[in-house]
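fold-stage: in
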Amino acid sequence: MRDLLRRYWTTITRPSAYFSLGFLTLGGFIAGVVFWGAFNTAMELTNTEAFCTGCHEMRDNTYAELKTTIHYSNRSGFHAKCSDCHVPHEWTYKIARKMQASKEVWAKVFGDINTRDKFQAKRLELAEHEWARFKANNSLECRNCHSFEYMDFTRQSPRAQEAHQRFLEPGAKTCIDCHKGIAHQLPDMTQAEVDAQKKQQAKKP
């Protein structure tokens, strides 16, 4: 048995001594394709609605709220999944977001928000993290589906027309500045408003 293991180890550590370069190249290519396919399949699996709502923390809180909004059901039949808004579509940004999501796994394991009361207590903190992320990437996930370039302002309400036209200039504002409660209930903003006022007062000379 020991000799067999030694032979396997020698073959693994010095494959060129036993196999041709062509065979190793082909084998490496096939292994790479299989690995990439499996990795990408697993990645896309974590983007499905079934995966996102697999734990009751999401299913009974944010997902339940989403089901009452126009992003879930509407006249055109478009249905926005969790990943459409919370996972970037471009590969590099997607990988970075998935790495950040490891904190969510940690929270699940240790029961940080495993009850409605705990979720409500952390709602403002969780929302502010997402708002900051949207602000930093200029509401990238919103703009994957909604584009100023194709908006028909004549079919919008006067208030929406005025706001969208005013903020068309780059750097003026981004979607999340005005649409924070578009898919989920807003948290209690009292403390956030108090903190904002304190910051404003601190900036005054």
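fold-stage: in (second)
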Amino acid sequence: MKGICQALNEVADVTVWTTEPHYPQKDLYRQADFWEELPQDIKIRRIKTTSANFEQNFLRRFLLYLEVLFCFFKLIIRETETYDIVFVTSPPLSVPFIGLLAKRKFKANFVVDIRDLWPETLRAVKGIFPKLLRYLSYPIEKHIYHRADKLIINSEGFTEYIQKIVGDKRKIYFLPNGLTDFELKLAPASKKEEKITIVYTGNMGIAQDIDSLFHLAESFQRNKKARFLLIGYGRNYMEIQQKINEKGFENIIIKPPESRKRVWKRLQEADIAYIGLKEHPVFETVMPGKVIDYMGASLPIIGVASGYSKRIIEEAHSGVVFHKEDQHKITEKLAELIESQELRKFYGKNGNEYAQQNFNWQTNKGLLYKFIFED
């Protein structure tokens, strides 16, 4: 979103309406590393929220969405400026839903940027409340997509689902996550062969298969050369941390969220990257941002995945991913990667080249202009 704001600001006057940062925890943003500067002429208006400790509690998260919706409603009603384009990001649906009011008030073009199939993702969440919320949200989702002037997706895996809602003739624009030239051209740090680090970064929630990573860690406990580094957040973070302690995994290090700059340095210093997605139809449509980061950092990828993300990794020849039941094959392939520097370089180089061709923010910027400003 920072890249989108900067790119649009080069050709338009941009005002950002957002919340005070609170994901995954508010306390993180007391650290200077978590703040990145935007051009001074971008106006930013932040709303304060009272909801707290929402990450592991679905009801509290829902209440946060309602609070944000209400706060944005008040902003729109009181707004005296005029706008030509309203650009909103989903999930959750509460933001694009209130965007419909902004579209009507400002008589603006309404652009919806879809980064997850919410509420469809709720299929993977057990419980009566998520199921009820999912069915109540489908009509809202349909209304938003039909009223949008432009629909942008960051994963081509979303196309079929959205096309069923809006019809085959409706144009859907694909704008993948991107990396800067600086990130793409950073050379991997020089690494010592004594230790091989297998890194995982990002969310540790309902979609992620961390159990397969535990299986790998257990298989390589006696291998003094291999160590696993987990950096992230999510509803399962504390549970994963507790499991590491209970199982006595001395070859796993787990760290709380870090700034993008710090995580990127960790990726440069690592040797292999892990991707894990649970086998559920809705997760077959996604393209985790971490995969793009892994490719940009020239890291070979191994793990569990299916669907769109698996296709991209295999198309790029940037690593190998298996189905969950193929634990023996994963273990064998990881052993091969640990022992072969040449194989790691092969996959890493392929991934970086693919990222430069397909996930370059400079290219994305041109696509963004075309999508938003074309007639």
